Amino acid sequence: MRAETFKPLVALLAVLVALYAFGSGGIFFFDDAPSMDGMLAVQDRMGALAYIFSGDAGPLGRPVALATFLLQRGAYAAGNADAFLWVNIGIHLLNVALLGWLVFRLQRQWPQHLGRSEWLAPAVAFFWGVLPILASASLMIVQRMTTLSALFALLGMHAYLWARDNAAWGRWPGMLAALVCLGLCTLLSALSKENGVLLPLLLLVLHSVLLRAPTRGAAGGALPADGNRRLGWVLGLALWLPSLAVLGYVASRLPTMAGTYWLRPFTLSERLASEAVILWEYLRVAFLPRLADLSPFHDDYPVRHFSDGVVQLALAAWAAVLVAAAVLWRRGQPLLLFAVLWYLAGHLLESSVFALFLYFEHRNYVPLIGPVLALAAWFAQWSAVPGRIRGLMAGVYGVFLAFMLWQTTSMWGSRQQLVWARAHPDSPRALQMLAGAYMQAGKVKDVDTMYEGAIRRNPRLTSVAMQGLRASCYLNDEGQATRRWLGHARQSLPTGVHSHLTVSSLSAVAQLQMQGRCVGLAPADVLALAGLMQGNPVFRGVDDRQGLSAIRANVLLSTGDVSGAMAELRQALKVQPDMDTIQALYGLIMSTQGHAAADAFLQEARAIQPTGSAYARQQWQHKLDVLGKP
């Protein structure tokens, strides 16, 4: 990279460090715990390997990302979020630098469409790095999975350009080495987050749309116009095969996809209709952001239908843009088609048919690279406006984005749960975060008022109903609020929407009741709530059923119904093997039926083969051995 490009990039990275530093005082979110709590049980090398390879945040487990979390185990145990945030920020800065270098290399290979401006590379890197919509990818700790996946993806893009260099000059060994590096980067990216499997598809867009676009006049590439055709064919095949595999996988899931939506408050059709609008909204928030649009909480996003006018308008706009982009590509102007296809390809997994939440800002981390590159390249070549004026316009816009990023990171750093909750009053996640802060400050009445407003606006929010009931136990009003919230829960649970918070909140309520700390709540009330939840088909997941059985077992045991508790524990064990359940059931059998029955139960437990690694199965048997010792 030339010094003319390197120096401004370093200066811009320094600006980004200063802007993101305002967010370094952030906190752990509840999304962090499921992927990170397992670190606390690690005591040796085998335990570390079990943690790294037992992740369930995605189909591939994301072991590379989990390994980086494990390196900061001490900071997590100490509740030190800053240490994690600075590592996240560092990864983002490294990605910015890699993107700048990538654009510089692209300019060298294809100046016909990207020009020769020494400012293009640092400008693209800076404008992408400073986008406020990407802040959550670094300031929400668990989203290191996103930025780490992008890091390996960017390295893979460099490997592709290396392969293209070697193919053009007919160097077989160099191209094969580059393809091996590309495959390794794709693997590491996917093992950080599953989006990494899209790297070959993104590169296919770059390869087919931008770097092989029809040219106007003489080709301006820095490489030989023909190159080595055989190596070029091999390079193209190395991108097409994995891309077709990914597309084939998505297509193969379509026939059964509708059956995976039972735990979401929307159908497959409604998700697709909503995403058609959301993808436009992402672009608007990315390039014309407002502070009110930027938040870690979007689980209250409205569900749309194909009959909605805004959905039809969004679909018509996508069709028009694609047609116009194809026409421009045929005329030797590929930037628009490149930007659109890169953006859509980058959203293929998280914004299409899979039963995920509708809206998350961090999903744009890699997809926005294409639009930023295309806009910056087009702007740099906008001959109708003098260069000084264009420079002034770019500077003003850059200051605007930097100001918005500063506001965004400042909110994250100062932990503005109240602002986020007011912006998203029907978001259960935002409400839970604010309720936690209020409870720590002793503002229980404010929590009750906040939850009351939310449940009245949307009685189907089962998590709000249960969290409101939990908070009511702390009010000294002789059980009046508890009885009110029991009514809300009885109305919400039979037909309400799914949330993992619902079952965990009922478990906390049951503990408070058994400890005599929830006036107005009887054991029969807790059992009735569990029954209502079990009758709702959205709570048929394995974790939900096991959790409900465990709750009923504890409540029955507290009332002296040992046989009923044992039956529930056996049901929980049947749903999903769990050592805590085995230990509880073993203790009950020992105390009521004696050693022989308890030993017989242990033999049954030894026949259970828990899912997971060989280490997990070995630990399972070891714990059973310890449990059976006198």
Cα radius of gyration in angstroms: 28 Å
Q: Count the DSSP helices.
A: 30
Overall strand count: 0
Strand content bin: under 5%
Please trace the helix and strand order, writing H or E for each element: HHHHHHHHHHHHHHHHHHHHHHHHHHHHHH
Inertia-based shape: globular
User: Structural class from helices and strands?
Assistant: mainly alpha
Biggest sheet character: none
C-alpha end-to-end distance: 70 Å
How helical, in percent, are the residues? Answer: 55-70%
Indicate the low-confidence ranges by residue numbers.
216-226
Average pLDDT level: 90
Characteristics:
about 0% strand; single chain; mainly alpha; 30 helices
Describe the structure.
By secondary structure, the protein is mainly alpha-helical. Helix content is 68%, strand content 0%. It has 30 helices and no strands. It has helices spanning 3-21, 33-36, 45-52, 63-70, 73-77, 81-109, 111-114, 120-129, 135-139, 144-168, 172-192, 199-210, 229-257, 268-287, 309-330, 335-346, 369-380, 387-413, 417-423, 428-440, 444-457, 462-472, 480-492, 500-514, 523-535, 542-558, 562-575, 579-593, 595-606, 614-628. α4 (63-70) packs across α11, α8 (120-129) packs across α17 and α12 packs antiparallel against α16. Mean pLDDT is 90; it is low at 216-226.
How would the blueprint of this fold be written?
Blueprint: H1 3-21, H2 33-36, H3 45-52, H4 63-70, H5 73-77, H6 81-109, H7 111-114, H8 120-129, H9 135-139, H10 144-168, H11 172-192, H12 199-210, H13 229-257, H14 268-287, H15 309-330, H16 335-346, H17 369-380, H18 387-413, H19 417-423, H20 428-440, H21 444-457, H22 462-472, H23 480-492, H24 500-514, H25 523-535, H26 542-558, H27 562-575, H28 579-593, H29 595-606, H30 614-628
Helix pairs in contact: 1-6, 1-8, 1-18, 4-11, 6-8, 6-10, 8-17, 10-11, 10-13, 12-13, 12-16, 14-15, 15-16, 16-17, 19-20, 20-21, 20-22, 21-22, 22-23, 22-24, 24-25, 24-26, 25-26, 26-27, 27-28, 28-29, 29-30
